[in-house]
Amino acid sequence: VQLVQSGGGMVQAGGSLRLSCTASGFTFSSYDMSWVRQAPGKGPEWVSNINTDGGSTQYADSVKGRFTISRDNAKNTLYLQMNSLNPEDTALYYCARASETITSVQAIDEYDAWGQGTQVIVSS
Prior knowledge:
four-stranded antiparallel β-sheet
């Protein structure tokens, strides 16, 4: 099982970035997926979740209306489009595979595979 992330970087407040996460070693289309972030000095924060076929998405209140999660099962890739970024969005962002027995998308310990993380820095 491997999740390889790309994208991220540094952007000014109000800007946009897109993160990608390419999966291998498992049947990507069979798993719900999420994005989780960790800001400096803080614990991990669930950001967004998407179900297996992309028909259902959920967002943390802090990113709702600004971020969009999507997936392309034919390409085994998960995306996070981030618009209207602000300095509070500065964090390491991780894609994560939900375990088959997940009970809450916000429960960080219920994810069983993680990407390597990608840094997002938003300057004011």
